[in-house]
Amino acid sequence: MSIFDDKTTYSLARLHEPLLAWYDTCKREIPWRGASSSYFVWVSEIMLQQTRVEAVRAYFLRFTAALPTLQHLAECDEQTLLKLWEGLGYYNRVRNMQKAAKIVMEQYGGELPRSYELLLTLPGIGEYTAGAIASIAYNIPVPCVDGNVMRVLSRVTANSADITLSSVKKDYQVLAQSMIPMDDSSNSPALQDRSSPRAGDFNQSLMELGATVCVPNGAPLCDVCPIQTQCKAFLSGNPQHYPVKTAKTARKIEKKTIVILMYGDQVLLQKRPNSGLLAGLWEFWSMDGWLNRDELTNALMEQGIFANAIHSLKKAKHIFSHIEWQMQGYLVYLEKLSTIGGGEWVKLTDLRENYALPSALKAYSKELERWVLP
């Protein structure tokens, strides 16, 4: 049984009207908004996963300038692709994009399919992304429900169901689907045969409201909300009680020592395994645990590495979804060029231009620039 009754669904049937009026006037100007290209919609939606809009702007412009079409993405070599994605993290996102792009080139003539169901068959495209592409690029009346949308709708309906449950999310998808303004000229039961000229705008209006007004942290800006008079949580005076969600499991803490090994104008990189966390990415040499100078010196000597100088770098941390790296670092100048298993010596100019390092090591990439790079 749905968490929303027919009365609730009926009461929201016209909510698109104030939402779209507000969206037309107040939406943010961002590079991909208004793009008719399904490719651009896809790129932006994948980038926006786990990343704020303001941070994505520059990455989107850089990526689409280098790879302006889906064919360019399909044909790009992996090292260039990862370099273009550098800074966004979660590199499997762009790897899956390339896998999907190759399938689209082979099976769909170079254009993302105009079908929600077919979009779901492509690597890296789930219900939310498929809904965004289908509605924004193709006007197909399907919802795209993310945390922003569930927060808005949970407050509008004052619904206390746990939004971390998949069954609850499904009910929000059904509710959002019912709210999309429809073109009544088609009675086809197939979504891809039906049209809603403002399906994409409606979905974006809910997301925009959640991102800028009905915000997750701190008090929502109810005084400027276009639907406050229809919002049960606002009328009850308790919008911050919603949404309800189960507390996250505590992240596992891992301590690491990051070592930037230098010889002349070269730095040592090592490649991570092809599966698991940060799969296949380049990184600085590292060791588990926190090592002091003496412990680091001994660990290097065991590898046949002798240091001319060791400089302490600042501590840093990086949070993954389930793990937190707590790091301390060293910059080490070597007496001679040493061969280290699994490592590759890279010129600093090549590192800057051609190698993508994970966002987890951003603090130490900056330290390298501060100490060494001109």
TrEMBL record:
Requisite cofactors: [4Fe-4S] cluster
Catalytically driven reaction(s): Hydrolyzes free adenine bases from 7,8-dihydro-8-oxoguanine:adenine mismatched double-stranded DNA, leaving an apurinic site
EC top class named in words: hydrolase
Domain HhH-GPD intervals: 47-212
SUPFAM superfamilies: DNA-glycosylase, Nudix
Keyword terms: 4Fe-4S, DNA damage, DNA repair, Glycosidase, Hydrolase, Iron, Iron-sulfur, Metal-binding
Cofactor, how bound (note): Binds 1 [4Fe-4S] cluster.
A Gene Ontology biological process term: mismatch repair
GO MF assignments: 4 iron, 4 sulfur cluster binding; 8-oxo-7,8-dihydroguanine DNA N-glycosylase activity; adenine/guanine mispair binding; metal ion binding; oxidized purine DNA binding; purine-specific mismatch base pair DNA N-glycosylase activity
Entry's EC annotation: 3.2.2.31
InterPro entries: A/G_AdeGlyc_MutY (IPR005760), DNA_glycosylase (IPR011257), Endonuclease-III-like_CS2 (IPR004036), HhH-GPD_domain (IPR003265), HhH_base_excis_C (IPR023170), HhH_motif (IPR000445), MIG/MutY (IPR044298), MutY_C (IPR029119)
Function of the protein: Adenine glycosylase active on G-A mispairs. MutY also corrects error-prone DNA synthesis past GO lesions which are due to the oxidatively damaged form of guanine: 7,8-dihydro-8-oxoguanine (8-oxo-dGTP).
Family membership noted in the UniProt record: Belongs to the Nth/MutY family.
Full protein name: Adenine DNA glycosylase
Species classification: Bacteria, Bacillati, Bacillota, Clostridia, Eubacteriales
